[in-house]
Specification:
The protein is low in regular secondary structure. About 0% of the residues lie in helices and about 0% in strands. It has no helices and no strands. The N and C termini lie far apart (about 30 Å).
C-alpha cells in the first residue's frame, strides 16, 4: 500500500496492520500508533513527533531522516530498523529493542534509553 505524503495527523491507528506500507514523507504527528505493526514499512522523512508508538513493531522498517521528537517508543521493537539521521530528541525509548538498529547520525539528545536493548547497534 502506498500512503506517500498522507496526512494522518492525530489519527488513531491502534493495533493496525501496516506491514510493508510506504509512508514516506507522511504526517503522523501526535498519532496514536500503539501496537501497530510497521514491520518492513517505509517511514523515511515522515513526521511522527509526539506520536504514541508504545509496543509498536518497527523491525526492519526504514525510518531514515524521520522526526520522532518527543515520541513515545516505550517497549517498541526497532530491531534491524534504519534510523539513520533520525530525530529522537526527548523521545521515550524505555525498554525499546534497538538490537542491530542503524543509528548513524541520529540525534538522541534527551532521549530516555532506560532498559533499552542496545547490543549490536550498527
Amino acid at each position: 500500500m502506498d500512503l506517500t505524503g498522507a496526512d494522518l495527523t492525530f489519527a488513531d491507528l491502534t493495533g493496525a496492520n501496516m506491514r510493508g506500507v510506504n509512508l514516506h514523507d507522511a504526517k503522523l504527528t501526535g498519532a496514536c500508533l500503539r501496537g501497530v505493526d510497521f514491520t518492513s514499512a517505509v517511514l523515511s522523512h515522515a513526521s511522527l513527533a509526539f506520536a504514541d508508538l508504545t509496543g509498536a513493531r518497527l523491525n526492519h522498517a526504514v525510518l531514515s531522516d524521520v522526526d520522532l521528537a518527543a515520541a513515545n517508543l516505550s517497549a517498541t521493537n526497532l530491531q534491524d530498523a534504519d534510523l539513520s539521521a533520525a530525530t529522537l530528541v526527548n523521545a521515550n525509548l524505555h525498554s525499546a529493542d534497538l538490537r542491530f538498529a542503524i543509528l548513524d547520525g541520529a540525534d538522541l539528545t534527551g532521549a530516555n534509553l532506560t532498559h533499552a536493548r542496545l547490543s549490536e547497534l550498527v
